[in-house]
């Protein structure tokens, strides 16, 4: 399948995003084991067992991540082996980027992942997330702190705009659409 919506300048960034944020065990595949590891890094079973609020948060994360994983498999698992390899993921991203270019919207199933990731964080005020809170969220995705802070400064116009879910969603859209090398939106992945 041709990937005509992914510019060559963005290919490395997308490959790095797959490797750092999705393929948590670095086996070249994304499967449920990777999602379980991501859930564990956000809210561990031990923490959830000791705190009712964290137990509920972990359960919700599991539900959202299961839905996202099965939705991802439904649209991207071309060989139906229960895994998403890099080529399959790039095919999915080609379609997602095409949709962003046409409508500036993520598909509902993909937007749901971003909502789940946003809600999984312990922000003091999710309508006005601080730079260090944003950086900590991205550090949990294996993005370095300096790159996360630069991205925050760029997308918030150095704090002039409030970082809320809407701005985070816009940030993610711009991340996938940006073709400028070494831009803060690339999170240091290019």
From TrEMBL:
Tagged with keyword Calcium: yes
Domain EF-hand: 9-45, 64-99
Domain of life: Eukaryota
Gene Ontology molecular function: any one: calcium ion binding
Keyword terms of this UniProt record: Calcium
Calcium recorded as keyword: yes
InterPro entries, alphabetized: EF-hand-dom_pair (IPR011992), EF_Hand_1_Ca_BS (IPR018247), EF_hand_dom (IPR002048)
Stated name of the protein: EF-hand domain-containing protein
